[in-house]
Amino acid sequence: MSNSMELPRPLEGIIPPIVTPLLGVDELDAAGAERLVEHVLAGGVHGLFVLGTTGEAPSLSHDLRKQFVAQVCRQVANRVPILVGITDTSFAESVSMAQAAADAGAQALVLAPPYYFMADQPELLEYVTHLVSRLPLPLFIYNMPALTKSVFQPNTVAKLAELEQVVGIKDSSANMIYYHQLRRVFRQREDFTILVGPDELMAESVLLGGHGGVNGGANMFPTLYVELFNAARTRDIARVAQLHEIVIDIASTIYRVGHHGSSLIKGIKTALSLMGICSDFVAEPFHRFRSAERNQVARLLDEIREKLRACGIAQP
Questions:
Q1: Closest CA to 104 of 139, 142, 132, 137
Q2: Which of 179, 211, 189, 216 minimizes the C-alpha distance to 200?
Q3: Which of 138, 181, 227, 297: CA 20 to 30 A from 192?
């Protein structure tokens, strides 16, 4: 498939980090994945990020990753840009995944630091520079210090942005001081995309000049996040406040069932299962929620839906 769609510069809007629907160990829920993609596209999202943290990419086999990317690209058929995660502990596997993404028809790649050996700034700079020379698509830097132990410092990002293929950054640090440093570094680069990962910071970041969000909650409620983005971009502060409160509710309830770091992924997958979209199977080393947690998510889902209806946002 041709990746004939041109990547917008900057890329703006809501780009959900879609979950990877699974039926079992190393078994894709292909039908569920198809329903999920149509669900988020129907919400008006501006792109898709495949094989991110919410997509459980590090827990998936390379074959399944490539199968999922190929299916999503075929289905989307250039309706929106597709970003594909290529983060790996192996340089060669990152290159292989990048080529598979290009062959499938994706528009861009996303790379966090390798997450076993900790690299410092000169090493990250050298690593990405070397890798970019082997990549067939534009690259977004992915700052995810909580899971990789490494930070792409703003000056390192600025040096990497001198490379033609490095077109943006997804920042999931939840550190607004870091975000402001990035904005300052790139104040003369209107073509360089700055996206934030945490749902709770998307509206604030857009109000302050950012380009959008890679927000896990848009798997469940894409219209909510798109409308919040639009309200922030047009500076409709009353609407921002109204919708942002629901986003905070989602992050404070559905994401917190179970009280573990894996709760966000489990919560989203459980909600999608309850919505009839895809399986809630979670990749090892984790497992799906048991009945008690599932019932709790069902109750929370009903509460969120009621709040969305009160705001004029229809949801399945």
A1: 137
A2: 216
A3: 227
Which residue among the candidates 170, 225, 255, 269 is catalytic per the annotation? Answer: 170
Amino acid identity, position 19: V
CA distances from 181 to 89, 125, 203, 298 (A): 28, 18, 18, 40
149 catalytically annotated: no
Residues of the chain with pLDDT under 70: 1-4, 315-316
CB 37 within 8 A of CB 76: yes
Angle formed at CA 228 by CA 223 and CA 229, multiple of 5 degrees? 100
Half-sphere exposure at residue 310, Cβ-oriented, CA atoms within 13 angstroms: 10
- The answer to whether the Cα torsion of 297, 301, 303, 304 is positive or negative is positive
Q: What is the pLDDT of residues 170-186, one digit of tens each?
A: 999 999 999 999 999 99
Per-residue pLDDT tens for 234-245?
999 999 999 999
DSSP H or E segment with residue 168: strand 166-171
Domains in the chain with CATH codes: 13-235 (3.20.20.70)
Choose the catalytic residue: 142, 179, 225, 255: 142
Instruction: Check: pTM over 0.85? Answer yes or no.
Output: yes
